[in-house]
Amino acid sequence: MSPESTGQNEHYLRVFWRGFRTWRGNRPFWAGLFTMVGGLPIAYFPYANMHLGNVTLAMSTTAGAGSLIIGILLITLGLTMWFHHIVRVFAGVAAILLALISIPVANIGGFLIGFLCALLGGALSISWAPGEPKPDPGPAGAAGEKSEGTGPGTQEPGPGFHGTVAVPQQPEQYDTTVEVDGGRHRAG
């Protein structure tokens, strides 16, 4: 192995971070995170007690079960956005609807903290789209290199050229004849 080889001597945290960034970039990560963070206060506040000195304030309401269900559903939708991102639009719409329902049901949507986070997460999930893959530069090398040639459609040679010739390509012509069996194979 040469000292210039990469990958073997990298620190495991750097490898983990690079893998995490790749994983995060292929799904609506922030949408899922905001949706899950929005579900936590919606589910927690109706069951919480606040202590002010010797006085205990119980914030529990009659809709405690409803707010617990809404909070758990929001957390589940956030995990769905992460691990099954194909249904991100459905999960986003459902997160927005649950956030709106949490206003009258769950202590003003978890005192507006859960409502706003779930609303933002749902909107981010709906608007997220997978990125386009980067084009491969091909065997010619870097994208900035020009090819050398003298025919029509070629560019003037410059420094750093390796004697390649650019050949203008014509679009392929497809065979449009119809076969006897309608283009189907004989097995079926």
Question: What order do the helices and strands come in, and which of them pair?
Answer:
Elements: H1 12-25, H2 29-44, E1 49-52, E2 55-58, H3 64-83, H4 88-105, H5 107-111, H6 113-127
Helix pairs in contact: 2-3, 2-4, 2-6, 3-4, 4-6
Explain this structure to me?
With 188 residues, the chain is mostly helical. Helix content is 47%, strand content 4%. It contains 6 helices and 2 strands. It has helices at 12-25, 29-44, 64-83, 88-105, 107-111, 113-127, and strands spanning 49-52, 55-58. It has a two-stranded antiparallel sheet. α4 packs antiparallel against α6. The longest helix has 20 residues, at 64-83. It starts with 11 loop residues before the first helix and ends in a 61-residue tail after the last helix.
Could you give the count of β-strands?
A: 2
Low-pLDDT windows of residues: none
Mean pLDDT comes to 78
**Net shape:** elongated
- Helical proportion, percent range: 40-55%
Distance between the termini: 54 Å
The ordered string of helix (H) and strand (E) elements is HHEEHHHH
